[in-house]
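[audit] Reproducing an earlier prediction to check determinism. Same input, same settings, fresh worker. If the tokens differ from the archived copy the diff job will pick it up downstream; this log only records the rerun itself.
[audit] input (282 residues):
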Amino acid sequence: MRKDRERVTRALDALSTGLAPYVERELRTVYHDNWRDVVQQSFREERSTGKPSAEGRWDAHALLTVMWDQWNRVFRGRLDHAERSLVSELREYRNRWAHQADFDFDDTYRILDSTERLLAAVKAEEQAAVGREKRDLLRAHFSHEARAAYRKAQINRRKFQDITVYVVCAVALVFVMSVLLGWAYWYFSFFILLLFSYLGFTRATSPAPFFYGPHECMDCGKVIYGEECPYCEETEAKPNHRQLAAAGAARGDEKAPRGNETPPPQRGEKTQVILVEAGGRE
């Protein structure tokens, strides 16, 4: 789901912000001024994407990779085996996120919970924001489940009421015909029972009506009136530049737009730009 993916993105950003000072501090404690050379060894066979820049900015991939590679030398005496399992798990989820994989509720909750636990282990302030994100996810999920259960109970109650009406009508008609015509015309009573039995069976096995009422979409958070969200369908049909950038980075495609880079103009846009520039020269 798109909204779950956005939650995962915010969690990875919080993980990068919270882990970076801790990782740098522990690396400096062990390797002193040579810590950057040690970090570069973890990426000797990979692209330069994700390494700490000159300004000291990290991403989640670089932080988790360095923690995994330097665990025995740097982090083993400061964190437990549970945190090492969290690092391995978050590395896998981060790779899935980079390859544009979809995340359901279980995966999203697992990522948020693991991120919060790892940030809590290093005493990072960002764990509070991730915890709020996790609680919001739970609140939205249980609200959706409660609404679905209430809708199902309403549908079952209406079915029970309709079947009760069919039974009462069938018994009443059979009683009236037996009093007026007698049991000599029993086949009329049998036909009435057969007819209402068919109506009751049809009503009991009928699918739920396609009416959901106004409710909040689990993906985009907008109010919709049906099962499918038209806003999410439009967004999925038109991927944004950030999605193209992430997909290009995962494939190693240098032609894909990166970050906030403006995509190349189309043919019609290029003609318009030339006209605007020509007008400016005049």
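[audit] rerun output stored. Observation attached for the diff report: The longest helix spans residues 127-180.
[audit] end
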